[in-house]
């Protein structure tokens, strides 16, 4: 018969134990052993059964004697009919060095009856005679079950009737003694509370272990829909987690902290082990479970911190449930420091990081980790704001805009745009105060995410177990719980405020803007918030006092213009030198900042103008000194210059002129090259420009609008050569595309059908769409098209050597007229009717910095195309451009002006309501 040493894992009754051997590979062996020659009172195993007298006391006596101890055992006999082993179990030697047999102890204490050898036909304990003697002593002394009936004899487990919420309310903050009766999973227990003997199920708060019996899976492949679902096997590491908890808690005396109840009435708490260790922390440290964020909210902040640290250690070591864990590989640096320049929503902001590797990386969009703020609507799609969305954005703007922040990047996700971009999620901290740094040099400032949640303006994301989350997740949960308790904003039971902010938009209605002018100028200074930056000197303001939006121009100065974009991000006008830099300077210094403006007047376009003063970050009213005057700051940075016309109309013109002189003397940016470039241009004009260049034979190849087009020099041999080579290219390669790396600015061949069948033409890629298609401009014609990837292929080297045959051009001294403006489409049609398909002569008056030609076109009979369109009232001259006319160009300009005067007199098209010329550009 078997014998050896083992650990008592469980005590099932007053005469039956579960012994556990040493583990080698896999779970340790177990043996259920009944004490030989003994019969203890039967213990109920279900609500339908009842205890025999003293059954509970008998089990408890044996449990306290041996649970968890190393014992020596011997199997005395086996009853095959019931498949059970019977034997003797000896406790470790006592102080006298004597091993006591549990069979004898139970008999001596009167908690089990001894079966004589005659009654036990299959075998008997080796100490049966001693047991019989000790039993007689117990009877004589009325010990155990031989005592007079009392409460102990009738102790019974309360199987039903537990009210989890009532138990938490009764014992909140107290330690409740209990016995762990069963372990279902690593983090799911059945416990008996003392002294009531109430049986309850308890989940370990904050921990989720793999389940031994997960929900049944569906029938395999749906072959038999009527068959019951096959039971799923234990989840990986489920048995290991269960065993881990069993060997430490099963049938042990513990103390419980009853901490919360979920919406289904399940009780959650913590187990305080006599050793002082927290089983929840130990499970997480050994990789046998994951933190359950939703139930961790029941625990204290210190307990959550301990569990979070334990889980982090297991993840780093890739223990068990984390064996496949891969730490996120960040494209961004882990730690960043920058200035908040824009708040997109209650959980997203844009940070200017000056130490980034390239200018393109200097502005980073940061999403607050593990946070979900109410969603802002979309006015274009007529989607309203979610309740409290505007309040969340305004809270974060007021808290963070223009502040220096420290960013801890925690994880990244692919952008929904599908263009390979990533969304960066991070915890963002304000700079700590000087006092805090003095006390602790490593102190952190306020966590913006915690602030938003604490204000009840965002919710904490409940992550899946395999998802990354904020390293300060527990702080977020604590803040959310507090906001819920205080019923703040999102958690309020009151009706949420109206989601639509009724604001009067004056940005696109000059007439209405001028009606507001008296109200805007009643006071000398008006407080506003910068909502958008158009250029360095032109912004959109929200004026809270009048509840309106209006365009505002910093008076008295001009700046280089940034690029102008049309539909789908197409650049319709390239940036002037320093134009983008100047716009970024304004954006980074005043975007969403509070400003004070002194509105002096309004131009005909409804743009208000005057000085603008930036409100200090700490609030208060800004002084009118140079430090807060934004126009002065632009001038001092060399990103603007004084406009001689409009500076006389502003009250602080002398201040602006002094600032310009300081930038000139230091040769900052614009002034570093302006004087030299002006002299070079003047010298070149003096030496070279005595007449305009003329191309005798050109044709229009593309009309963008009535003033903007592309021309081909049909007298150039290269034009014909390229055409022949592309015909040969089409014959050689057919019409099938060929895969290659399609990227912006790549020159390739693209298919185009001009009505004579598809053919390959040279093209330049301007934009690559997420689906692989690309927007291209055909180099030899100037037209644009969007083509799929299978309509592109690489060009042969002999075709690449030729320059583009289509030259971009605009009419000289003519004001641009996009096709989207009134009479814009008519102008484009008129140009096509007059000049398309005809051989024209082209007079080049000048060339812009980016290569676009300023020209006049003439029909075969010598008549000017521009004069024809001016006379029809479809175009108008650019008054500013007329100031830069060279003597030999005067006759051309006179013809244009005379043609326009004719259209004015006869009130044609643009002039149908009289003179539309305005000075609205002056001062902008």
From TrEMBL:
This is Unnamed protein product. It is found in: Cytoplasm. Residues 741-802 form the Tudor domain. The keyword Cytoplasm applies. Residues 2-148, 174-324, 334-493, 524-673 form the TNase-like domain. Keywords: Cytoplasm, Repeat. The keyword Cytoplasm applies. Residues 215-237 are annotated as: Disordered. InterPro entries: Silence_cplx_Nase-comp_TudorSN, SNase_OB-fold_sf, Staphylococal_nuclease_OB-fold, Tudor. Residues 227-236 have a biased composition (Low complexity). One of its GO terms (molecular function) is RNA binding.
């Amino acid at each position: 018969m078997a014998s050896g040493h083992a650990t008592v894992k469980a005590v099932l009754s007053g005469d039956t134990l579960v012994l556990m051997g040493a583990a080698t590979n896999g779970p340790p062996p177990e043996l259920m052993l009944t004490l030989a020659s003994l019969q203890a009172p039967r213990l109920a195993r279900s609500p339908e059964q009842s205890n025999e007298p003293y059954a509970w006391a008998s089990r408890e006596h044996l449990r306290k004697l041996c649970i968890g101890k190393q014992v020596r055992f011997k199997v005395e006999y086996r009853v095959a009919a019931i498949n059970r082993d019977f034997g003797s179990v000896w406790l470790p030697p006592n102080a006298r060095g004597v091993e006591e047999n549990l069979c004898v102890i139970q008999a001596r204490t009167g908690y089990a009856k001894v079966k004589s050898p005659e009654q036990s036909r299959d075998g008997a304990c080796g100490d049966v005679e001693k047991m019989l003697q000790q039993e007689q002593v117990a009877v004589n002394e009325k010990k155990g079950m031989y005592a007079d009936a009392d409460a102990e004899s009738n102790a019974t487990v309360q199987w039903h009737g537990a009210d989890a919420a009532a138990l938490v309310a009764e014992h909140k903050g107290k330690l409740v003694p209990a016995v762990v009766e069963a372990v279902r999973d690593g983090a799911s227990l059945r416990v008996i509370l003392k002294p009531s003997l109430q049986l309850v199920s308890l989940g370990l708060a904050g921990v989720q272990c793999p389940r031994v019996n997960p929900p049944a899976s569906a029938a395999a492949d749906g072959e038999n829909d009527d068959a019951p679902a096959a039971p799923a096997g234990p989840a990986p590491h489920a048995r290991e987690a269960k065993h881990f908890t069993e060997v430490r808690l099963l049938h042990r005396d513990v103390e419980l902290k009853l901490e919360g109840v979920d919406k289904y009435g399940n009780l959650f708490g913590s187990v305080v082990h006599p050793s002082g260790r927290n089983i929840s922390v130990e499970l997480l440290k050994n990789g046998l479970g994951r933190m359950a964020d939703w139930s961790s909210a029941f625990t204290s902040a210190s307990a959550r911190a301990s569990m979070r640290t334990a889980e982090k250690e297991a993840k780093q070591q890739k223990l068990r449930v984390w064996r496949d864990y891969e730490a996120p590989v960040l494209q961004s640096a882990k730690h960043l420091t920058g200035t908040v320049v824009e708040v997109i929503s209650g959980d997203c902001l844009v940070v200017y990081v000056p130490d980034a590797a390239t200018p393109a990386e200097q502005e980073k969009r940061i999403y607050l980790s593990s946070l979900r703020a109410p969603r802002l609507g979309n006015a274009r799609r007529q989607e309203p704001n979610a309740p409290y969305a505007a309040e969340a954005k305004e809270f974060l703007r007021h808290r963070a805009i223009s502040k220096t922040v420290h960013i801890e990047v925690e994880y990244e996700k692919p952008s929904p745009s599908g263009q390979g971009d990533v969304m960066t999620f991070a915890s963002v901290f304000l700079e700590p105060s000087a006092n805090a740094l003095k006390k602790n040099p490593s102190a952190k400032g306020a966590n913006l995410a915690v602030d938003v949640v604490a204000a009840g303006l965002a919710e904490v994301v409940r992550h899946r177990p395999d998802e990354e989350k904020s390293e300060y997740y527990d702080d977020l949960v604590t803040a959310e719980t507090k906001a819920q308790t205080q019923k703040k904003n999102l958690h309020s039971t009151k009706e949420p405020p109206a989601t639509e902010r009724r604001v009067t938009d004056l940005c696109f209605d000059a007439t209405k803007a001028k009606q507001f002018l008296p109200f805007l100028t009643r006071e000398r200074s008006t407080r506003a918030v910068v909502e958008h930056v158009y250029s360095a000197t032109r912004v959109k303001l929200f004026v809270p006092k009048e509840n309106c939006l209006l365009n505002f121009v910093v008076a008295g100065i001009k700046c280089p213009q940034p690029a102008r974009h049309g539909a789908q991000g197409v650049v319709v006008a390239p940036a002037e030198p320093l134009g983008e830099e100047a716009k970024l300077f304004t954006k980074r210094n005043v975007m969403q900042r509070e400003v004070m403006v002194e509105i002096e007047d309004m131009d005909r376009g409804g743009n208000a103008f005057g000085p603008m003063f930036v409100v200090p970050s700490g609030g208060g009213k800004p002084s009118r000194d140079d430090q807060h005057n934004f126009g002065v700051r632009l001038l001092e940075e060399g990103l603007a210059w004084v406009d001689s016309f409009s500076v006389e109309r502003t009250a602080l013109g002398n201040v602006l002129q002094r600032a310009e002189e300081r930038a000139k003397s230091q040769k900052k940016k614009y002034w570093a090259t302006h004087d030299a470039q002006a002299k070079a241009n003047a010298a070149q004009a003096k030496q070279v420009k005595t007449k305009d260049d003329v191309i005798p034979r050109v044709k229009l190849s593309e009309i963008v609008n009535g003033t903007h087009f592309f021309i081909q020099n049909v007298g150039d041999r290269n034009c014909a050569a390229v055409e022949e080579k592309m015909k040969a290219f089409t014959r050689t390669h057919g019409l099938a595309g060929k895969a290659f790396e399609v990227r912006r600015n790549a020159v390739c061949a693209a298919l185009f059908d001009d009505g004579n069948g598809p053919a390959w033409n040279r093209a330049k890629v301007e934009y690559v769409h997420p689906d692989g298609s690309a927007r291209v401009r055909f180099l030899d014609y100037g037209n644009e098209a969007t083509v799929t990837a299978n309509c592109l292929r690489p060009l042969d080297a002999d075709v690449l050597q030729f320059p583009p045959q289509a030259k971009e051009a605009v009419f000289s001294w003519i004001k641009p007229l996009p096709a989207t403006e009134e009479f814009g489409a008519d102008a484009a049609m008129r140009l096509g009717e007059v000049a398309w398909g005809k051989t024209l002569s082209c007079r080049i008056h000048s060339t812009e910095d980016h290569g676009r030609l300023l020209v006049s076109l003439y029909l075969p009979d010598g008549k000017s195309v521009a004069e024809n369109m001016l006379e029809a009232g479809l175009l108008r001259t650019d008054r500013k451009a007329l100031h830069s006319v060279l003597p030999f160009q005067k006759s051309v300009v006179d013809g244009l002006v005379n043609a326009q005067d004719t259209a004015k007199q006869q009130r044609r098209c643009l002039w149908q309501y009289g003179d539309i010329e305005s000075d609205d550009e002056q001062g902008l």
